[in-house]
Amino acid sequence: MATARKEVEITLHSIHIPETASGLDTETTHLLSADLVWPRVGVAQKSATQTCALKKGHAEFAAVNWGRRILFKESVEGRFALALTLTESLDDEDLEQFFRFCAGAFLSIGAGLVESAARPAGKLAAAPLDYAAKNIGKYPGPTLLVEGLAELDSADFPASGGERLLTLRMAAARRLMGLGTRKPRRLLLEKGAPDGEVTLAVRTL
User: How many CB atoms within 10 Å of residue 93?
Assistant: First the structure.
């Protein structure tokens, strides 16, 4: 029996990361990157990223503009994987460096996007970026905070018009240390320790 191919739209639903290692900062900005690994025959990987503003490690996206929630509109077939990473808290300069790298590496992302992304309020607006892993690998990028991986199958998604939530458990991508001043830095989490979850909405087109 042939494996069913489905067209899916994957958007951000919510993020909850209890430990962001951001000290007293209650509002932080991060980059969430997503990779579809072998979503279908002949396609090894599709990647995208969005900026995410968290309040005490939490964000809900139901009321957020679709353009700031969307990760993928892709065909999936049979077994594939979805990998997520979330960076440490970034400032405007870090974010601008990332977007300028992408703009320089890919002609499809013009300088106008980078300039317009710096508004409003000095925060870079979210922009889904589809990029090739071999090029993004040349840029070390921001330090990762958490990561998660799920093995999926196209048969598990609803028929056309249906929607389901998909929750990925996240784990610390490195040893997380507290921001010390006079006192020695304390260990917050060991690498691989559970640290919250990211929930996505998957709609079958």
Answer: 8
Least confident of 3-17, 23-37, 157-171: 23-37
Dihedrals phi, psi of 14, to nearest 5 degrees: -160, 155
Contact 45, 35 (CB under 8 A): yes
Alpha-carbon distance 33 to 154, whole Å?
21
With beta carbons less than 8 A apart as the criterion, state whether 83 and 148 touch.
yes
Task: Look at residue 170 and tell me whether its pLDDT is greater than 90.
Answer: yes
- CA-based angle 148:33:137, to the nearest 5? 105
At 47, phi and psi to the nearest 5? Answer: -130, 150
Phi, psi angles (nearest 5°) of residue 128: -70, 130
List C-alpha distances in Å: 134 to 47, 65, 97, 128, 137. Answer: 11, 30, 18, 18, 5
Q: DSSP of 16-67, one letter per residue?
A: E-S----TT-SEEEEEEEEEEEEEETTEEEEEEEEEEEEETTEEE-TTS-GG
Give residue 134's pLDDT band: very low, low, confident or very high (50, 70, 90): very low
Coil/strand/helix, residue 74: strand
DSSP assignment of 138-165: TS--SPEEEEEEEEEEGGGSPSTT-EEE
Average pLDDT (48-64) is 94
